[in-house]
Each structure stands twice: as structure tokens, then as C-alpha cells.
Hints:
binds NADP nicotinamide-adenine-dinucleotide phosphate; single chain; six-stranded parallel β-sheet
Amino acid sequence: xxxxxxxxxxxxxxxxxxxxxxxxxxxxxxxxxxxxxxxxxxxxxxxxxxxxxxxxxxxxxxxxxxxxxxxxxxxxxxxxxxxxxxxxxxxxxxxxxxxxxxxxxxxxxxxxxxxxxxxxxxxxxxxxxxxxxxxxxxxxxxxxxxxxxxxxxxxxxxxxxxxxxxxxxxxxxxxxxxxxxxxxxxxxxxxxxxxxxxxxxxxxxxxxxxxxxxxxxxxxxxxxxxxxxxxxxxxxxxxxxxxxxxxxxxxxxxxxxxxxxxxxxxxxxxxxxxxxxxxxxxxxxxxxxxxxxxxxxxxxxxxxxxxxxxxxxxxxxxxxxxxxxxxxxxxxxx
Length: 334
Ligand code: NAP
């Protein structure tokens, strides 16, 4: 399928380009960015661009939208301009997006393929309701993606309450997100809007599909989000209350979690690995960035605590989107 990457010069866009290199199903035909980048070679704008894309001319969003000429779009544009762009494209083609613009629409799934693949059925609700040939599938914000992969194997123990404190990497704020002066030698315990997203997106993702909408999970999620001087890889300290289960049961559930192996998706990697002491610099690239690493599991009063770390640009953004597209194709929605 001919693919476009929107926002191809940004941090998530670059990750899409790298992951789609040599992809057996999706072939990049258009690299889209702002007027600032339009008309220039991709290799001029992105110093470590893969060889095969270096000479492609970046097109402006306006020019691309006037005649999209692709079969599928991967979106890494800012949310402020994504809503209209995604709706226009979805009239014709599937759109897999990292922007939050449609995440909270009733007929749009927030999808983490290993966690809630059944929510993909909303695509057909969406098509019918909106009269589109295409559709929109979103993935969650980066820290929610990493968190929900670690929560999925724990559903069988009855989740009652989750408290989480994140330590998020600088690249989560985009290419020009934070000045060196702000983040060097520092921790910033405020990421605008992030806590609301973690609390609400994870309840939608872990919710159940009832008719034509998702009923969010009823447990409480409470988050505090911090930015730390790590380049890539978000780490999260999780405190979870469960209805039943022991440390041994939970560790075994983490270790055996491998739900989509049989679908043989081209980018699929084991989603979760248990390691005693997870750390972003050591573990973010596990499974080409798609595997999250969980560890430090212990009982803590009436709850359990553990640490999870994962690559924000791969598992938390572009890699999750590519897996979503592969799942949609495998399940026959494309
Ligand atoms: P970024 O590094 O700032 O990149 C933004 C991209 O959008 C660039 O390619 C930029 O092109 C393009 N762009 C900006 N304004 C535009 C306009 N008016 N018209 C056309 N193109 C425009 O941002 P990012 O971190 O990659 O994030 C991209 C999206 O993914 C955002 O919606 C973000 O919230 C979401 N997301 C990010 C992460 C993460 O870890 N960073 C994780 C999950 C989701 P130019 O280079 O030409 O300016």
C-alpha cells in the first residue's frame, strides 16, 4: 500500500520513516511537513534519514491534501491542526494517528494492539456513522501506551485502583519542546494535560466495547507526570490494588503475556519482558523499541508496586501506530 507520513520531519515522523523502511506491506510515497520544509530533500532536513528516503522531496501539507494519492496515512502532526486533516483523509483512506484530536470521540478507538484489539470493531461503526470509506484509529499518549501494556496482563486479577508517577523523557515533548537550560540538572513535575490523558485514556483502552461505544473501566487511575533529563524512554512507578493474586501470580502473568504472536504481524515483538531493575538507557530499544520492560515487582501494604519503562517514540507513538495498521490489515478492515 502507498503510504504517507504526515509530520515526517518531527520526532515521531522520523521514527515512522525509520520503522517503515523496507516494510513488506506499506511503502512510503509521500513525506509531508510544513511550508518551512516543503521543497527540500528529506536528507537535508533530517541528518540521519535512511538512505532510501534522502532524496525524496518533502511536500507541504496543503499540496499533499489537494491530491493525496496514497492508500494509507500515518499522522505525526501537532494536534492543533490534525482534526480537520484526519477527517478529510479518512473520507477516502485509513488514518493511523498519534495526535490526540480524535482520541475521545465515541466512535474512534484508542488502540494498543496487544491490549484492546477488539476495539478495532469501532472502525465499522465510524464508517457507517460518518459515511467514510476510510477511518481513524488513534494510539494513546506515550506514557499511557507504556502503562497499559503493563496493566493488560493484570486484568485477570481484578484491578481496583492504580496510582502512577511518570518520569518522562525529553523527546516526549517534540523536537523543539524544552530548552537545555530548563531540563538539564532538573526534574519538572508538571506536563500540561498529561495526567488527565493518562487517567482517562487508560480507562477507555481497558474499557469494554458495548454496542457502538466503549464503556470506560470503572477503576480509579491517579497520575503525577514529571519530565526528567533522559533523551528517550519513559519510566513509570506504578502502585496497583488488585482483588486477588500474589507476587508470583503477577510475575507469571507478566512473563507469559504475548497475545498476538499467532497473527504473525510484520512488526510484532514480545510486548513485555520482566527484568529486575528496568532502566530507560538499557532497555528502551528492546524489541526494536516495541517491548516494554517491567520489574521491581513487590507487595506494598495492601497493594503491589512495580516499575515499567518503554520507548516513547516507538511503543508510545510511531511503532504503536504501525502495529495498529498491521492489525487492521490482518483483521480485514483495510
Ligand atoms: P515535533 O517533533 O514538533 O514534529 C511536528 C511535525 O509536524 C514536524 O514534521 C513539523 O514540520 C510538522 N508541522 C508542524 N506544524 C505544521 C503545519 N502547520 N503544517 C504542516 N506540518 C506541520 O512533534 P512530535 O513530538 O513528533 O509529535 C507529533 C505528534 O505526535 C503530536 O501530535 C504529539 O502530541 C504526538 N505524540 C508525540 C509523542 C512523543 O513522544 N514525542 C508521543 C505520542 C504522541 P516542520 O519540520 O516543517 O516544522
